[in-house]
Every structure is written in structure tokens, then in C-alpha cells.
Amino acid sequence: MEYKDMIEQLTSLINNNQLISATISQPRAKSDEIKRIRLKPVELQGVYHIQFEYQYERILKHDNIELSGIPAKIDFLLQQFRQVQAEFKEEKIHIQLSKKFKILWKSERVVTKTVVNLSHNRKKNYLLDEDTAYPFLIRLGVQTPDGKVKKQKHDKFRQINRFVEFIDDALDYLPKDRPVRILDFGSGKSYLTFALYHYLHIEKGLDIKVTGLDLKKEVIEECQQIANDLNYDNLEFLVGDINDYNEETSVDMVVTLHACDVATDMALARAVKWGAKVILSVPCCQHELNTQLNSPSLDVMLQHGLVKERFAALATDSIRAELLKLVGYEAQLLEFIDMEHTPKNILIRAYFTGKRPTTGEQEKYKAFVEFLGAKPFLEKELQNYL
Ligand SMILES: C[S@@+](CC[C@H](N)C(=O)[O-])C[C@H]1O[C@@H](n2cnc3c(N)ncnc32)[C@H](O)[C@@H]1O
Questions:
Q1: Which residues of the chain form CATH 3.40.50.150?
Q2: Any ligand 1 atom below 6 A from CB of 325
Q3: CATH H superfamily, domain 135-381
Q4: 241 lines ligand 1 (CB under 6 A)
Q5: Which of 36, 118, 179, 236 is geometrically suited to a Cys-Cys bond with 43, CB 3.0 to 4.6 A?
């Protein structure tokens, strides 16, 4: 079989509403970031699409392609991957491509037909269940009194669930022989603060003490009232500025969700000073670097305000991760939530390891900030630790 005939045959099976699911795997280049791609049909606003789910080392990304775009997409992917396993309504196929694009096509008839689920929004396995009434979510207005997530609060519900997943992944790094001390900086209406208290204390039975801190007096007072009403004894809310908060000597986990601009850096700096084992931080509106950037080699990009703003935000988060590495953390920037739900989609995850940086790592950081002309707030905050 010729390569172009294979693409034609495969895409006509997909486009004739036959696909149940498929996996494209075996990247030709070992360095390829995408490990495999899963395909399934989905119906979006009444239109049949194929959803491509790209599996990277640590994250998944999706895009939904209309049928007219399928041949080019499949062709593009099969230039880079060597195996396809696909289940159609009446047959299963296995395609293997050699290094030189020689094709082995195996097909097997399917006796029982499978019903295809076209729902794009099949129920997700959230740690906080969509159909369970949670008193704190009802009080915070995320759920109706009978426990349904309100339509306009779905994004918030997804965000806190995703954040709780990251907290769940970090449990091994937290102490088990004493109460775990947790700070949520810039907690605002404190959806996350309540959610993590509920998940860790009420569902997992961990001994924890949680504080949510924010500038907004009235909002914080209301949160404290809710915590009192629900008998959440080890959850407190304080009014205050992160920069003035020096009550603690030791904290195990610091979280922030969309703490504005350098408020994120203030929180990171405090976490480092307290030797927090776990830092989970989703930054927001990073303006600081935007006014500092001064790198003629980047003018082609930075002349465009929009690009400059995005570049500044990405550079800020990269600098934050690098600084955390230099002070003994294993730090990563991970996808928090897909772009379709919020553009603020990077999560900084840092676990304390105590590893000292090499001279090379320190120099790499210095060269980067010098190149940008940046004087990061967090670097100044951490100068005694660098
Ligand atoms: C976008 S809101 C996010 C609130 C909450 N974490 C959430 O995701 O729903 C940012 C919050 O950070 C708080 N904030 C900003 N700077 C702060 C500071 N220096 N100290 C304490 N809170 C601060 C604001 O008052 C605001 O409530």
C-alpha cells in the first residue's frame, strides 16, 4: 500500500462516522515532546469533530478538528509517528510504518458493534464530585442549595478541583507526624481555601491548620463567618497584606491562586523563608517585567504590546521557577487548566529538596536576567538565600 492510499483510506473511515477511538504512537524522533495522540469523535454544537488529545510527558492538550481538516492532520501526524491502532464500528486496524514509510496494514472485523459516545462533556472524575452537595460550596454560591454546580460557576469549580488534584499529588511531601500548616495567600472569596480544607481534613482526615489571608476586610469576615458556621475549627481567615505577614516561623505548604502581580512573589518569598516543603502557585497579571524589559535583540517581538505582555508574563514565571531552583526547590511550570477556560493557565509547582545549585545554574540565571534587563522583585526578596 502506498502512503497516500493509506492516508486516504484511514481518513475516509474516520470521516464516514465510523471511528470509535484511535491511538497514534511511536514518535519517530526520540526527543519528540508528544508521546502519543488519542482520537475520538465528539459533537460540538451539533457538528461532528474529531478530538485529538496530545499526551506530553506531564500534561495533556486537546484540539477539536472538523472533518475537512482531518486528512491534512493525519498526514501531518503520520510524518512524525509510526503506529496507529484504531477501532471503528465494524473493524479494528493496526498500521505500522517503517523508517522508510513502508506500510503494514492489518485489519480485523468486529462482530459486536459499539455505541459511540459523542458527548464532549462526559462526566469528569473530579476529586470534588459534581453531583455531591458540599456545604461550603453552597455557602460560597458555587452550588445551588440542592447541590448543583451553578452554570456561571463551572469554571471556578473546575479550577478548584484541578488545584486540589495538585495538592493531592503533593501529599507525600508533607509531614505525617504533626499537624500540617498551610497558608493561602490572596485567598479572596476563598473557594480554594475551603476546598483544600474540606478535601484534606474532612475527606482525607489529615490534621491541618489552614489560614487564608487577603486585603479585603469584608470578604474575609464573611469567609470567617462561614468557617465558624460550618465548624471548620482549624480554618482561619485574616485580613492583611502578604508583605506584612510575619506571624509564622514554619509553614509546610503555601498556595496562591491568581494573587495579583508581585503578590505572588511576596508569597513565594515567604514560603522560601519558612522552608515550605510544597509551593503551589497560579500567578496572575504579571506586570512587573513588562516595564523593565530592555533587550534590543528581542525588539522584533517586544515592539508589539500584546507579544510583550505575554512574553513578560512567561519570562516572569520562568524566572520564578529558576529562582526557586536556586534556593533548593525542584520547580516546574505546569499547565493548570486548558486555555479555553482561563488564559491564566500556568501553575508553579515547587517541592523542597535542599539541593544546592551548581555555579553553572547560577550563571545561567544571571545571564538570562541580564539579557532581559530585568531586576525581578523575587530576586531581591530572596537575596539572603541565593
Ligand atoms: C484575583 S483574586 C483571587 C482570589 C482567590 N485566590 C481566587 O482565586 O478566587 C486576587 C486576590 O489577591 C488579593 N491580594 C492582592 N495583593 C495582596 C496582598 N499584597 N496581600 C494580600 N492579598 C492580596 C486581592 O485582594 C484579591 O482578593
A1: 135-381
A2: no
A3: Vaccinia Virus protein VP39 (3.40.50.150)
A4: yes
A5: 118
